Amino acid sequence: MIYAANLKTNFTRTYTHKYIEELSSLHKKEDIYIFPTQSSLDNYKKGANLKIGAQNAYMCENGAFTGEIGVEQLDEFGITTLLLGHSERRNILKESDELIKEKFNYFKKLGYKIFFCIGENLDVKNKGLNETLKYNMGQLSGIDLDYKNLIIAYEPIWAIGTGVSAKTEDVDAIFNGLKKEFKTPLLYGGSVKSSNIKELSSITTLDGVLIGSAALKLDEFSKIINLGG
Ligand code: PGA
């Protein structure tokens, strides 16, 4: 199982160090990815199983791209993992499918591990499974699904940060549909917590989880890792 924590715009650099060090001492085996704020990217003391990624980056080495970071800045901290297409980047920061695709292609060429997020809103979900699958596959159009360093995170927007996770049977149905289209590792995200991780991890096609709110409490994130198996 992959356990990925998207810390979003939370924690100071000092606290992020403490968090990563403690997490690293608690978990030695599982595949854990932490996406801290850009200001907390650093060279961390941590075990080999724990990896650090950036929540966003721009398709450049460096240059005049105010507010963005490029490869030169990522390289300084040995970052080779990126989160792309998170619904907050799409909806709040207005990143288009086109821009996300450009970023994907740029960082793919450089061999980055890419966590690529997809997920429908409530309107699409209410149209049923076929429409939901079509919508999610649409977000992957133009993305090389055979790219060996690609991990896809299915995160229904209506389940993100709401405390209401998608029902296990719904995730199962969508995962079955998606896994017919690609063999890429597939994560679920959207209100994952210690009280639902056991049920979610019973989904046979689930390769891991991407966690927001629940990862902000170290003991809760740790519990999720222990219970998820
Ligand atoms: P959540 O966020 O766990 O708070 O729902 C998930 C995410 O945005 O990746």
What does this structure look like?
- By secondary structure, the chain is an alpha/beta fold.
- 36% of the residues lie in helices and 16% in strands.
- Strands 3-2-1-8-7-6-5-4 form an 8-stranded parallel β-sheet, with helices on one face.
- Helix 1 links the parallel strand 1 and strand 2 (31-35).
- Helix 6 crosses helix 7 (168-181).
- The chain is globular.
- The mean pLDDT is 96.
- Bound molecules: 2-phosphoglycolic acid (PGA).
- 2-phosphoglycolic acid is lined by residues 6, 155, 160-161, 189-192, 210-214.
Strand and helix map with partners:
Blueprint: E1 2-6, H1 13-26, E2 31-35, E3 50-52, H2 71-76, E4 81-84, H3 87-91, H4 97-109, E5 113-118, H5 122-125, H6 129-139, E6 150-154, H7 168-181, E7 186-189, H8 197-200, E8 208-211, H9 218-228
Parallel strand pairs: 1-2, 1-8, 2-3, 4-5, 5-6, 6-7, 7-8
The structure holds 2-phosphoglycolic acid.
